[in-house]
Write a structure and sequence with these properties.
The structure is a single chain. The protein is an alpha/beta fold and 133 residues long. The chain has a single domain, classed as Glutaredoxin (3-Layer(aba) Sandwich), CATH 3.40.30. Helices cover 43% and strands 21% of the residues. A five-stranded mixed β-sheet has the order 1-3-2-4-5. The longest helix has 17 residues. The chain is globular and about 30 Å long.
């Protein structure tokens, strides 16, 4: 009885996600953004760019992964006016501490080396465009 319920549960999950037995993957365009791990690296980037969007994230974070393609799109459409930098909080714990990161993804908009805005959590493309205005 338990085995039958398990099979039904798995079958339902496969139908709902449309991924049961599928070998094709949705291709998501990737971009290698500048990664910083130290305060000195971050300060250098802030000095070289007037407007910077910092994405504090972690590789294991679901909402961070969901945000990534929107950052790629934002870079394509606004890359001439804004620099996107990524900070992996697992590899840059001192920076995460300095910026008081307690939840990820965390986005910081820096203008002229000063924090202009902060946003926590997943943001879609339209929200990102509004955020950088």
């Amino acid at each position: 009885m338990i085995k039958i319920l398990f099979v039904l549960l798995v079958s339902t999950a496969c139908l709902l996600t449309s991924s049961c037995g599928s070998t094709s993957e949705t291709k998501v365009e990737k971009k290698e953004f500048t990664q910083v791990t130290t305060k000195a690296e971050l300060e250098k980037e802030l000095s070289n760019n007037k407007v910077v969007l910092i994405d504090f994230y972690a590789d294991w974070c679901g909402p961070c992964k969901k945000l990534a393609p929107h950052l790629v799109k934002l870079d394509k459409t606004h890359g001439k006016t804004i620099k996107i930098i990524k900070v992996n909080v697992d590899n840059a714990q001192e920076l995460a501490k300095e910026y008081q990161i307690s939840s990820i993804p965390a986005l910081y908009l820096i203008k002229d080396k000063k924090i202009n805005k902060k946003e926590l959590g997943y943001q879609n493309y339209e929200q990102l465009v509004d955020f950088i205005k």
